[in-house]
DNA sequence: ACTCTGACTCAAGACGCT
DNA sequence: TTGAGTCAGAGT
DNA sequence: AGCGTCC
C-alpha cells in the first residue's frame, strides 16, 4: 500500500520522479526517507510485503483490473484532447505497483540493513502473526483488517513525517473487543458484514445496522437467516456471498509461522557503498543526501533501541475541540468500532506508548 | 426531527529554506 | 486505489 | 506554515 501511495503522491509537474534513464524513483524516494525517519526515531521496522492474493479476492481484483484499464484509456484520451490537469488526474488513476517496484524496494531495504518478509498471501495476516508472537511490538498499517487478523496492537499513521496531520493511533484489539463487548468470532463476523476486501457489501447495511444485526443475532449465520426470512425483504444478501470462506481466511490465513527460520529477523548496518551505487549511480539521487542518510542509519544501529515515541505522542492535542472531534468521528464507520478504542488509547495511554517496535 | 446510507469530492510523500 | 469529509434523500 | 524541489 505504501509503495502505491508513493507512486501516486511523489511527483513533480504531474510526473513521477525519474532517474535520467527514465525509470521511476518515487517509490525509492518515499521508502528511503520514511524508513530513515522511522529508524531515526528509535524504531526498528520490519517490512512485510504482500504475497499472492487469496483466491477469494480474485473477484475484487478483477474489478480493479477492469477499472485500471478503463482509466488507462481515459488517460490516453486525455493526453490527446484533455487539459494538463486531466492528464495528471488519470495518470494517478492508472498507477500500478509492478514486480520491479517491489524488487527495487527490497533491494533498498537490504542495503539499508532493514529486514523484511514476503508474506505467503496477505501482508496484514503475516503482520498479525508476527505481532502476536512478540516478534514485533505492533503491526503498523492503515488497514483495519489487521485487527481482524488478530494482531494485538495496530498502529496507524506511523510515518513520523513532519506534517503528519493525523496523530499516530495505537489500537489494542483486546480493548476494542472489550469496548464492543464481543468475542473475536463476532468481531470477525461484524467486519465481514461491514464490508471486507473479499466480499461485496450488503446494500443498505452500514456500520450501525451491521453492529445492530450482529448484536441481535450473534452470528453471521443467524443474521443471514434473519435477512432471508424477513417478510419485508428489507435487505438482500448478494448472490455470491461466501461469508464462511471469508471468515475462514480471517481465522486461518496462509502465513509463515513466527518460529519459521525465515522469521529470524536481523537489523544490520547499512551497506553505504551499496546504497551509493544503487541510489546515486543507478538512480541519480544526490550523493551527499544519500551519504548523510546512510550515516544516520549507521548511528542508529549502534544506539541502544530506546524509545523516542513519547516525543511524538506528546504532540497529540487534547483540547476540547479535539475531543469533540474525536467523539464525532467515533460515531462512524468500521472505524467506529475501532476508533472507540482509539479514544481510550488516547485518553489513557497518551504518552505511555513504548516503542520497542520489536524487542 | 432524527438516523442512516450512499453518492460525491478531494488529496495523496518528505525535505529544507524562508 | 484508499480515506476522509460533506451533503441529500429515504426511512423511521 | 507555505512552497519549491527532490529524480
From TrEMBL:
<dbReference type="GO" id="GO:0005739">
    <property type="term" value="C:mitochondrion"/>
</dbReference>
<feature type="domain" description="XPG-I">
    <location>
        <begin position="110"/>
        <end position="182"/>
    </location>
</feature>
<keyword id="KW-0227">DNA damage</keyword>
<dbReference type="InterPro" id="IPR006084">
    <property type="entry name" value="XPG/Rad2"/>
</dbReference>
<keyword id="KW-0269">Exonuclease</keyword>
<keyword id="KW-0597">Phosphoprotein</keyword>
<dbReference type="GO" id="GO:0006284">
    <property type="term" value="P:base-excision repair"/>
</dbReference>
<dbReference type="InterPro" id="IPR023426">
    <property type="entry name" value="Flap_endonuc"/>
</dbReference>
<keyword id="KW-0460">Magnesium</keyword>
<keyword id="KW-0255">Endonuclease</keyword>
<keyword id="KW-0234">DNA repair</keyword>
<keyword id="KW-0235">DNA replication</keyword>
<dbReference type="InterPro" id="IPR019974">
    <property type="entry name" value="XPG_CS"/>
</dbReference>
<feature type="region of interest" description="Disordered">
    <location>
        <begin position="320"/>
        <end position="359"/>
    </location>
</feature>
<dbReference type="Pfam" id="PF00867">
    <property type="entry name" value="XPG_I"/>
</dbReference>
<keyword id="KW-0539">Nucleus</keyword>
<keyword id="KW-0496">Mitochondrion</keyword>
<dbReference type="GO" id="GO:0005654">
    <property type="term" value="C:nucleoplasm"/>
</dbReference>
<keyword id="KW-0479">Metal-binding</keyword>
<dbReference type="GO" id="GO:0003677">
    <property type="term" value="F:DNA binding"/>
</dbReference>
<feature type="domain" description="XPG N-terminal">
    <location>
        <begin position="1"/>
        <end position="71"/>
    </location>
</feature>
<dbReference type="GO" id="GO:0017108">
    <property type="term" value="F:5'-flap endonuclease activity"/>
</dbReference>
<comment type="similarity">
    <text>Belongs to the XPG/RAD2 endonuclease family. FEN1 subfamily.</text>
</comment>
<dbReference type="InterPro" id="IPR006085">
    <property type="entry name" value="XPG_DNA_repair_N"/>
</dbReference>
<dbReference type="GO" id="GO:0005730">
    <property type="term" value="C:nucleolus"/>
</dbReference>
<dbReference type="Pfam" id="PF00752">
    <property type="entry name" value="XPG_N"/>
</dbReference>
<comment type="function">
    <text>Structure-specific nuclease with 5'-flap endonuclease and 5'-3' exonuclease activities involved in DNA replication and repair. During DNA replication, cleaves the 5'-overhanging flap structure that is generated by displacement synthesis when DNA polymerase encounters the 5'-end of a downstream Okazaki fragment. It enters the flap from the 5'-end and then tracks to cleave the flap base, leaving a nick for ligation. Also involved in the long patch base excision repair (LP-BER) pathway, by cleaving within the apurinic/apyrimidinic (AP) site-terminated flap.</text>
</comment>
<dbReference type="InterPro" id="IPR036279">
    <property type="entry name" value="5-3_exonuclease_C_sf"/>
</dbReference>
<dbReference type="GO" id="GO:0008409">
    <property type="term" value="F:5'-3' exonuclease activity"/>
</dbReference>
<keyword id="KW-0378">Hydrolase</keyword>
<feature type="compositionally biased region" description="Basic and acidic residues">
    <location>
        <begin position="320"/>
        <end position="353"/>
    </location>
</feature>
<dbReference type="InterPro" id="IPR029060">
    <property type="entry name" value="PIN-like_dom_sf"/>
</dbReference>
<dbReference type="GO" id="GO:0000287">
    <property type="term" value="F:magnesium ion binding"/>
</dbReference>
<keyword id="KW-0540">Nuclease</keyword>
<dbReference type="InterPro" id="IPR008918">
    <property type="entry name" value="HhH2"/>
</dbReference>
<protein>
    <recommendedName>
        <fullName>Flap endonuclease 1</fullName>
        <ecNumber>3.1.-.-</ecNumber>
    </recommendedName>
</protein>
<dbReference type="InterPro" id="IPR006086">
    <property type="entry name" value="XPG-I_dom"/>
</dbReference>
<dbReference type="GO" id="GO:0043137">
    <property type="term" value="P:DNA replication, removal of RNA primer"/>
</dbReference>
